[in-house]
């Protein structure tokens, strides 16, 4: 059923996209494509990927360390989607106000989450470190106009950078490694989830949202025309 729904959405989008009036610069179309199709589609694919083959369907499968990492990747992905589709769409009611970098960064991060998720099947841990080490910098790229967000994501980015530096030092000096890379990847993703949960659940609402609404994306208030005598 879910696959049929996504196929229907995709066919509907293609029909709209093929209209003679559609343009590459039509941000409303890209908004529908990214947040109405790509984000929920990838989320559904990751959830489906967690379902084991019939012969492997047992509790031990769901309790593996790498699967826990994948659960937290899905949680981070969901938080990001809630923030984009809930918070930001509520603030930026007209997609035409969104800068091109807004869409580009969201596509890059979305693909990054999926790449990190898939790589854990091999398993390869370096994509997880790269994606969750760089994500705060990508967020900062299009949120830097808000001074509150700029401070938050700068600190967040420095924190993830320190983990990447530590990971690099472990490659050169294995003796300083206190846990294996799989466990470190899990802890790294959990830390990202906690920080971003704090941002979406409290910081943005209490500190940053007002600046977005009143300064960056204010609603135009219609003023009555003055009467002429």
Task: Describe the structure in your own words.
- This protein is an all-alpha fold and 229 residues long.
- The relative contact order is 0.10.
- Helix content is 74%, strand content 0%.
- The model is unreliable at 13-22 and 222-229 (pLDDT under 50).
- It has one domain (2-11, 27-51, 62-213).
- It contains eight helices and no strands.
The 3D shape can be described as globular
Number of helices: 8
Q: How much is the average pLDDT?
A: 86
Number of domains: 1
Helix % is over 70%
The N- to C-terminal Cα distance equals 65 Å
Global Rg: 21 Å
How much β-strand is present in the residues?
A: under 5%
Category by helix and strand content: mainly alpha
Q: In total, how many beta strands?
A: 0
Order of helices and strands: HHHHHHHH
Uncertain segments are: 13-22, 222-229
Taking the sheet with the most strands, its summary is: none
Topology:
Elements: H1 2-17, H2 27-49, H3 59-62, H4 65-91, H5 100-119, H6 126-143, H7 147-172, H8 181-216
Question: What labels describe this entry?
Answer:
single chain, 229 residues, mainly alpha, 74% helix
């Amino acid at each position: 059923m879910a696959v049929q729904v996504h196929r229907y959405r995709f066919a509907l989008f293609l029909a709209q996209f093929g209209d003679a009036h559609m343009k590459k610069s039509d941000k409303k179309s890209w908004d529908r494509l990214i947040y109405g199709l790509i984000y929920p589609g990838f989320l559904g694919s990751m959830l489906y990927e967690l379902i084991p083959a019939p012969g492997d369907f047992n509790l031990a499968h769901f309790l593996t360390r790498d699967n826990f990492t994948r659960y937290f990747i899905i949680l981070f992905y969901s938080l990001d989607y809630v923030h984009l589709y809930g918070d930001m769409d509520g603030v930026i009611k007209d997609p035409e106000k969104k800068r091109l970098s807004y869409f580009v960064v969201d596509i890059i991060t979305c693909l990054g989450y999926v790449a990190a998720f898939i790589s854990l099947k091999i398993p390869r841990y370096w994509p997880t470190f790269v994606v969750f080490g760089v994500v705060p910098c990508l967020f900062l790229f299009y949120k830097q106009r808000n001074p509150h967000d700029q401070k938050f994501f700068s600190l967040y980015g420095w924190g993830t950078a320190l983990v990447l530096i530590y990971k690099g030092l472990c490659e050169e000096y294995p003796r300083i490694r206190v846990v294996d890379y799989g466990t470190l990847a899990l802890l790294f993703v959990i830390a990202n989830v906690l920080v971003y949960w704090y941002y979406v659940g409290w910081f943005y609402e209490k500190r940053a949202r007002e600046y977005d609404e009143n300064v960056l994306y204010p609603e135009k208030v219609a003023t009555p025309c003055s009467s002429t005598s």
